[in-house]
Write a structure and sequence with these properties.
Layout: E1 27-33, E2 36-43, E3 48-55, H1 59-66, E4 70-74, H2 80-83, E5 89-92, H3 99-110, H4 124-141, E6 152-153, E7 161-162, H5 164-169, H6 184-188, H7 194-205, H8 211-224, H9 228-235, H10 241-249, H11 255-265, H12 271-275, H13 281-288, H14 294-303, H15 324-334, H16 336-351, E8 357-361, E9 365-371, E10 383-387, E11 391-395, H17 397-428, H18 432-458, E12 464-466, E13 471-476, H19 481-484, E14 491-495, E15 501-505, H20 512-528, E16 536-540, E17 544-548, H21 561-575, E18 581-585, H22 593-608, E19 616-620, E20 636-646, E21 649-658, H23 666-672
Helix pairs in contact: 3-4, 7-18, 8-18, 9-18, 10-18, 11-14, 15-17
């Protein structure tokens, strides 16, 4: 039967050749109801299926966090924000997002009476999105999605929150120019497997707020400091088990996927002995998640050839000795040359014609060729098959019987091999949960070993965590910038109850933005469970990081540079808390001096007031009048970037010191930039 067996869309890719190994390919469905944004996303290549809800106005930051490859949305709800996105948008009928029918479809898929066990109660918009998502994925793949065996709920309270502007400004996985490096991800990605790199990317966009979970990661990194080299050596040859398992579930796995899976599974038994004495509960938990996959490895070793062909249709995929019938058919093909040589020798003796030859061509098959001069000496059982200019070609009953058997052997062998391969894929289906567990464990070990590698190589230290709201970084360094230059100047950042607002002045190009981003990145790294580039570091748990850095406009949205700046400032003032870390760079610069100074002054008063916000804030400015607030407003402290003047020239010392600057050195910076005298 001729039919469409699969529809390929940007969000449902599973073919390794079409995907980035280090990036998750997510299909996202959105549903809106009474100011609530319901989200469901899945990665067919990994089997991840997640639900979440957020305020509708958080759509921009959620899209920046998830980076979907394709978005599904109902035809009656299409926010203007989606119109400017460079992401394929699939508009579906509204009935596909109906919550009761979505619950029914999800229960049928998971084989459960209800969804209570998944903890999804109350998430109505997200459930509607999940139903539409499941239907779309199943339709495009043309099969049941066996590897989607669980539904995970993501709560906002689990992670340190960052809006879209913050994720961009901190250059976590992409630079402001849209390049993949240098970023925090490219700096920390010492992972040896694709699974580890994808998990690292996820961790960087989802820093934890659970102190116990963060400490467990830090202890694991510490335990791996003497072991990371050996662990990475073991993990280096491991293939992408996660994506291979997904292709197994979708019946699209190729022979070399299975050989890579076999070789990878045979390496996993070396991990438990390697980590047996590591003093880390998390490492032992991950090792315990490595299931007993010896049976699967043995099954694949017996079934798949050591070096299989790329495609089943090419043959040479199943191992010799796996199937007697296949071996017999292969033997027929392999023994053809020996048979023909023997047959030719016997026919020369029988006919007495020493020039007799046995040959083959694709049109006429096997033949016996004799010159025209020997035509009278042809035995009686020879039958003429073809006449040439100087020769005659014949066939005998014995050669005809062998021809029928040999020519059909290849086709029958390929057919048998395809049947055996499909049967093997079916037989491996029960092992999919174990394979996903193994992939999760390997990825976790890989990321923790990468953290340990970076800590040892770059001199990172283990941060401490506490429940207070302070922050104390001594000798902190920017992890990305220090990798790009020869000598990086370290700086301290200290927030206490009496010092919650640091007002930073100094010249352009002096390092204010680097210093501010450095503080945010070290905070984020600590919440991810990574060691940090500093002499010592202590962090109180942070709930959100906000940044207002850089100048940009939104011409398509009709917003000027100043309007974008004020919109982002308003977002901070409305959503920051005393547990937040706020970075603000040159607020008010896009308007007149008096207006800008007034706005900046008011923002400082608002944020620094513990009865309103009291957030930990780094505030860079060129309005030197603001330095008067030190001593006037509680918690506000002046700091500046040190410079050294040499005649008309200046030298940036890149050091943060107590006190305020009285000049911005704009003329000198313009001269450095090459502005004509």
């Amino acid at each position: 039967e001729r039919r469409v067996v699969r529809i390929v869309t940007p969000g449902t890719l599973t073919d390794a050749a079409l995907m980035d190994d280090k990036t998750d390919n997510r299909l996202l469905a959105l549903s809106f109801a009474q100011g609530t944004l319901g989200m469901a996303w899945l990665s067919l290549a990994s089997g991840e299926f997640v639900l979440s809800e957020a305020p509708a106005e958080a759509l921009g930051s959620e899209l920046e966090r998830l980076r979907p490859a394709e978005i599904l949305i109902a035809d009656h709800a299409k926010p203007t924000l989606l119109e400017g996105l460079r992401v394929p948008l699939k508009v579906l009928p509204a009935w596909q997002f109906d919550v009761p029918s979505a619950v029914t479809r999800l229960c049928r898929h998971f084989g459960t009476q209800d969804l209570v066990g998944f903890g999804v109660e109350g998430l109505k918009p997200a459930l509607g999105a999940a139903g539409a998502l499941l239907d779309y994925a199943r339709t495009t793949q043309g099969t049941q999605l066996a590897h989607l065996d669980t539904l995970r709920v993501e709560r906002v309270s689990q992670y340190l929150q960052m809006d879209a502007a913050t994720r961009r400004n901190l250059e976590l996985t992409e630079t402001l120019r849209g390049e993949t490096s240098p970023t925090l991800f490219s700096c920390l990605d010492q992972c040896r497997t694709s699974m580890g790199s994808r998990l690292l990317r996820h961790w960087l966009h989802h820093p934890l707020r659970d102190t116990a979970a963060i400490r467990a990661r830090l202890e694991a990194v510490e335990a791996l400091l003497p072991l990371h080299t050996a662990l990475h050596r073991t993990l280096s040859p491991v293939a992408d088990i996660e994506r291979i398992a997904a292709r197994l579930a979708l019946r699209t796995a190729r022979p070399r996927d299975l050989s890579a899976l076999r070789d990878s599974l045979m390496l996993l038994p070396a991990l438990p002995p390697l980590l047996a004495h590591a003093r880390s509960p998390l490492l032992h938990t991950l090792v315990a998640q490595l299931p007993e996959v010896a049976r699967v490895a043995t099954q694949l070793a017996a079934a798949i050839a050591p070096e299989p062909a790329s495609l089943v249709r090419d043959g040479g995929v199943m191992a010799d000795g796996f199937d007697a019938e296949l071996d017999e058919l292969r033997a027929l093909q392999a023994d053809a040359s020996a048979f023909l040589l023997d047959f030719e020798t016997r026919e020369r003796l029988r006919s007495g014609i020493p020039t007799l030859k046995v040959g083959f061509n694709a049109v006429h098959g096997f033949y016996i060729e004799l010159g025209k001069a020997q035509a009278e000496r042809v035995p009686e059982d020879y039958r003429r098959r073809q006449t040439l200019k100087n020769a005659e070609r014949y066939i005998t009953p014995e050669l005809k019987a062998f021809e029928d058997k040999a020519l059909s052997a290849k086709d029958r062998a390929l057919s048998r091999e395809k049947l055996l391969y499909d049967t093997l894929l079916e037989a491996l289906a029960p092992a999919l949960p174990d394979l996903r567990l193994a992939a999760h464990a390997v990825a976790g070990l890989d990321v923790l070993a990468a953290f340990a590698h970076q800590a040892e190589a770059q001199g990172y230290v283990k941060p401490s965590l506490h429940d207070r709201s302070g922050l104390d970084i001594r000798g902190g360094r920017h992890p990305v910038v220090e990798a790009q230059i020869e000598h990086f100047i370290a700086n301290d950042t200290v927030f206490t109850a009496a010092r919650q607002f640091l007002l930073i002045t100094g010249p352009n190009m002096g390092g204010k933005s680097t210093y501010m981003r450095q503080t945010a990145l070290l905070t984020l790294m600590a919440h991810c469970g990574s060691f940090v580039p500093a002499q010592s570091a202590s962090f109180g748990l942070v709930d959100r990081i906000f940044t207002r850095i850089g100048a940009s406009d939104d011409l398509a949205g009709g917003r000027s540079t100043f309007m974008v700046e004020m919109t982002e400032t308003a977002n901070i003032l409305h959503n920051a808390t005393e547990r937040s870390l706020v970075l603000m760079d040159e607020i008010g610069r896009g308007t007149s001096t008096f207006d800008g100074l007034s706005i900046a002054w008011a923002v400082i008063e608002h944020i620094s007031n513990p009865k309103i916000l009291g957030a930990k804030t780094l505030f860079a400015t060129h309005y030197h009048e603001l330095t008067e607030l030190d001593g006037t407003i509680s918690g506000v402290n002046n700091y500046c970037i040190a410079v050294k003047e040499q005649g008309d020239d200046i030298v940036f010392l890149r050091k943060i010191v107590k006190g305020g600057a009285d000049k911005s050195y704009g003329i000198q910076v313009a001269k450095l930039a090459g502005v004509p005298e």
